């Protein structure tokens, strides 16, 4: 009598369903905590620590490929840079840079402190190299921009395109190397291909003006770019879309 009353409404299908729900809940919990290894603990706008609904996972050490050492996450380290900012109003309002917004790494010019070493392919070689250093690469379609004048967002012609930097495994052009005229800073600078527009007669970079090209971050090496350098270069041009001119800070009508 007792056994019939207790187990009358339970069958194997119902037990399997409960086990699946329990397994799925534990899986979601595990994946969420593992997802919190990098980028955590979070910091609020005042530099303090944010509270969490889930606890952070314990530190785990990963061995990096190609002899690049080890990394332990989470490492509880704060970002090693200070940015001069002020709040535009109460908590939640945009933060306004008080230094040089083109290089401070805020707003559209934000960058992440990635490792200051080149990204490698599966064989341990730098992925992004000048086309002249690679064998078997050529411009097979479209316009070859090498030799074209470079026009800034204010119409100034700042130099000429000297080289293409190629992502070898992906067979894509990632950067254009510009040979700047002396009056705009001289030397070589890179511009991300996505921030440039190639015309038959010129290469146009609208995000920054002629006076800004001298401040484009340089690479330490003439034929290798690091992940941190990529971040800062891309952020500089992206930051110019808002901060290059005070007129760009005003509301825009589409």
What's the CATH class label of the domain at 107-246?
Alpha Beta
Report the helical percentage: 10-25%
Question: In the CATH scheme, what's the topology name of the domain at 107-246?
Answer: Photosynthetic Reaction Center, Chain H, domain 2
- Residue-averaged pLDDT: 87
Cα(first) to Cα(last) distance is: 77 Å
Main sheet: strands, sense, barrel? 7 strands, mixed
Give the overall shape: extended
**What do we call the CATH homologous superfamily of the domain at 107-246?**
Photosynthetic Reaction Center, subunit H, domain 2
**Radius of gyration over alpha carbons?**
26 Å
Would you tell me the structural class of the helices and strands? alpha+beta
- Got a strand count? 11
Counting H and I runs of at least 4 residues, what is the number of helices? 3
* Percentage of residues in strands: 15-25%
What is the element layout, followed by pairings?
Layout: H1 2-7, H2 12-35, E1 60-63, E2 70-73, E3 85-87, E4 95-97, E5 128-130, E6 149-151, E7 157-167, E8 172-180, E9 188-192, E10 197-198, E11 203-204, H3 227-243
Parallel strand pairs: 6-11
Antiparallel strand pairs: 1-2, 3-4, 5-7, 6-7, 7-8, 8-9, 10-11
Summary of the model, kept short:
It is built from three helices and eleven strands; from the N terminus they run H-H-E-E-E-E-E-E-E-E-E-E-E-H. The chain is α+β, with helices and mostly antiparallel strands.
């Amino acid at each position: 009598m007792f056994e019939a009353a207790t187990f009358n409404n339970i069958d194997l299908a119902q037990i399997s369903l409960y086990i699946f729900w329990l397994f799925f809940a534990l899986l979601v919990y595990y994946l969420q905590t593992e997802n919190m290894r990098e980028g955590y603990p979070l910091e609020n706008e005042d530099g303090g620590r944010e509270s969490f609904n889930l606890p952070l996972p314990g530190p785990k050490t990963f061995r990096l490929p190609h002899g690049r050492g080890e990394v332990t996450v989470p490492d509880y380290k704060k970002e090693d840079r200070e940015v001069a900012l002020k709040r535009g109003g109460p908590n939640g309002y945009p933060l306004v840079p008080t230094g040089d917004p083109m290089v401070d790494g805020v707003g559209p010019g934000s960058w992440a402190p990635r490792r200051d070493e080149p990204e490698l392919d599966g064989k341990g070689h730098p992925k992004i190299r000048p086309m002249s250093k690679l064998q078997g690469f050529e411009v097979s379609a479209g316009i070859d921009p090498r030799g074209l004048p470079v026009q800034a967002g204010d119409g100034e012609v700042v130099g000429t395109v000297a080289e293409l930097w190629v992502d070898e495994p992906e067979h894509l052009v990632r950067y254009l190397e510009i040979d700047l005229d002396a009056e705009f800073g001289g030397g070589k600078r890179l511009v991300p291909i996505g921030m440039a527009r190639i015309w038959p007669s010129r290469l146009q970079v609208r995000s920054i003006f002629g006076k800004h090209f001298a401040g484009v971050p340089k690479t330490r090496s003439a034929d290798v770019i690091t992940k941190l350098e990529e971040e800062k270069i891309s952020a500089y041009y992206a930051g110019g879309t808002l901060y290059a001119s005070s007129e760009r800070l005003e509301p825009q009508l589409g």
